[in-house]
Specification:
This protein is an alpha+beta fold. The chain has helices spanning 52-58, 62-65, 71-82, 92-106, 118-125, 133-139, 150-168, 198-206; strands spanning 6-14, 23-32, 35-43, 87-89, 115-117, 209-215, 221-234, 237-244, 249-254, 258-264. It has 2 domains: 6-186, Nucleotidyltransferase, domain 5 (2-Layer Sandwich), CATH 3.30.420.10; 195-264, Roll (SH3 type barrels), CATH 2.30.30. The chain is built from 8 helices and 10 strands. The longest helix is centred in the middle third of the chain and has 19 residues, at 150-168.
Length: 282
C-alpha cells in the first residue's frame, strides 16, 4: 500500500517548539501521479517577536513577516489547498504539532489528514550516521539547495521520499513512515486550570481582559493587563498565552506565577504591534 496518487509534502519554520512555538513560514508541494503539480509558500505573522537565536537558523526577521497574514488565515488556506491528501514531512510530528496548535489558537477544526514521516523511514531503511534532512541531502547526493526555509526543505523531503521508495523497491511498506496519525491527533490536549486560577478561563471564554499580578522568573512581582487566549502544558507546568496590553503582542505566562487576577470588563481594545524591539521572555 502506497501514499496514493496525490499527496502533499510540507515543512514549517517557527519561533520555537510546539505548542508555544509560532508559525512563521509554511511551504508545501502537491504531488500527483509522481509529479509536482502545485506549490504553496507563505510567510506568517507570529503575533510576537521572533527570537534572535531562531532567526539565526532560518534567517526570517520580524520585518520580513510584519505585513504577512496571521496563522489563522494561512492555516485555513493551507487546509483548503491540501484537501484530504496525506501529509508527508521530515520529523512530521513537529510540523503537524505546530499546525494543530495554531488550529487550537484560532478555533479552526484541525483536519484528519494522515501524516507520514521520512525521518522515521530514513532511520529504519538507511541507518546513516545522521538522519537530519541537511545531512541526508549531502550523504545521499540529493539535489543541492538552501536549507531551513519551508519550501526548500519540502523539496528536499520530496527528493528524500523518492530515494527511500527507490531503496525499498518491492519491499516498500508505508508502515516504515509511521502509523499515519491524523494531523488533529498531534494537537495539544485541553488542560484544566486549578480552581484558584479559573478566573483566567472565564476571561478567555468571555474574550475579556484581566488585571494580573505576576511573578517574573527573577522573582519580582509585576502588574499587567492581558487577554488570555490559549492554555497548554509544557515541561510539567501549565502555561497561558495572552495578549499583553502594554507591549501589544502575545506573550506566555506560567500559571503558577499568577498570584492574583481580576476581570477588567472595560479594557480598551488593543492593536497588535507588527514590528518589535528586544525579545522579552516571561
Amino acid at each position: 500500500m502506497g501514499l496514493g496518487r496525490e499527496f502533499v509534502v510540507f515543512d514549517t519554520e517557527t519561533t520555537g517548539m510546539p505548542p508555544s512555538g509560532r508559525l512563521v513560514e509554511l511551504g508545501a508541494l502537491k504531488v500527483r501521479g509522481g509529479a509536482v503539480v502545485e506549490r504553496f509558500e507563505r510567510l506568517v505573522f507570529p503575533e510576537g517577536p521572533i527570537p534572535p537565536q531562531v532567526t539565526a537558523i532560518h534567517g526570517i526577521r520580524d520585518a520580513d513577516v510584519a505585513e504577512a497574514a496571521d496563522a489563522g488565515a494561512v492555516v485555513k488556506e493551507f487546509i483548503a489547498w491540501a484537501g484530504a491528501a496525506p501529509l508527508v514531512g521530515h520529523n512530521v510530528a513537529f510540523d503537524a504539532a505546530i499546525l494543530a496548535a495554531e488550529c487550537r489558537r484560532f478555533g479552526i477544526e484541525p483536519p484528519a489528514n494522515a501524516t507520514w514521516c521520512t525521518l522515521r523511514a530514513a532511520r529504519s531503511l538507511l541507518q546513516r550516521p545522521s538522519h537530519s534532512l541537511e545531512a541526508l541531502v549531502i550523504d545521499l547526493g540529493l539535489p543541492p539547495a538552501a536549507h531551513h526555509r519551508a519550501l526548500a526543505d519540502a523539496e528536499h523531503t520530496l527528493h528524500l521520499l523518492w530515494r527511500l521508495m527507490e531503496a525499498a523497491g518491492d519491499r516498500f511498506k508505508l508502515s516504515a513512515f509511521g502509523r499515519g496519525r491524523a494531523l488533529a491527533e498531534h494537537g495539544p490536549e485541553p488542560v484544566a486550570l486549578p480552581a484558584t486560577h479559573e478566573i483566567l478561563r472565564e476571561a478567555h471564554d468571555a474574550g475579556e481582559a484581566v488585571g494580573m499580578r505576576y511573578r517574573l522568573a527573577s522573582g519580582w512581582l509585576t502588574n499587567c493587563q492581558v487577554t488570555p487566549r490559549f492554555f497548554y502544558r509544557r515541561g510539567g507546568a501549565l502555561w497561558m498565552e495572552a495578549l499583553c496590553h502594554e507591549d501589544c503582542f502575545f506573550k506566555t505566562y506560567r500559571i503558577d506565577r499568577v498570584v492574583g487576577a481580576q476581570l477588567c470588563q472595560d479594557a480598551p481594545p488593543v492593536e497588535l504591534r507588527r514590528r518589535f524591539g528586544v525579545w522579552r521572555e516571561n
